[in-house]
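Quick entry, no commentary yet.
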Amino acid sequence: MESLIVISKVKKFIKEKADMNTSANFFEPLNQDILKACRDAMAHAKKLGRKTVMGKDFNLYVENSDVSEALVVASKVKKMIKEEAGLSTSAQAIDQLTVRVQAGCLKAIENAKADKRKTVMDRDFTAPTSLT
């Protein structure tokens, strides 16, 4: 599976938020979480009879998300959703995925700090269930 996240931007996000490094293995569980979130959103959109995956189809929806830089590869996300479900993808969906990546990274930073490490690793990742 291709990476749906922009690895360089995720590394930069973690570096700017916590001055921490990121192991190469961190990105696979993050990517798998984004893939699952997309598939869940596709199922939700189809259940509602829509032809477009929207931001509100994601389980961790943030009203008026203020995303300055996408942390997912929009073209790959849109292509995957089109190929797997035949659906279009709204720009708001990309923002919601970025919010999800940010939440996963912030929790991973907390976990790495709790283990007194300066590197965020795959074992630090847990799929976000809330944005707080």
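second:
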Amino acid sequence: MFSYPFMQNAYMAGTLIAIISGIMGVFVIARNMSFLTHTLSEIGFAGAAFGIFMGWQPLLGMLLFTTVSSIGVGELGAKSSRRENSISAISASQLVSVSCSYH
């Protein structure tokens, strides 16, 4: 099975993702930001869909939406007591803006 180049690449990519995820997971849990990571994954999907709608590369739309959302959460949720509220507000506003662009 590992004699095929695509399987070698898939194995290497999976191994690197597993290592990076293990390291990043410690920081996500330690900073109590699991809700943010879930929200950013949903916003990234919406951004990719928006990028396709606009005729852009999906990766560009995803990076644009996640970057803007991360900065917004960072600015709005400076205090840890307001962090969850700001994450919910950013998530709702991004998803509403994407759904309005399709109509």
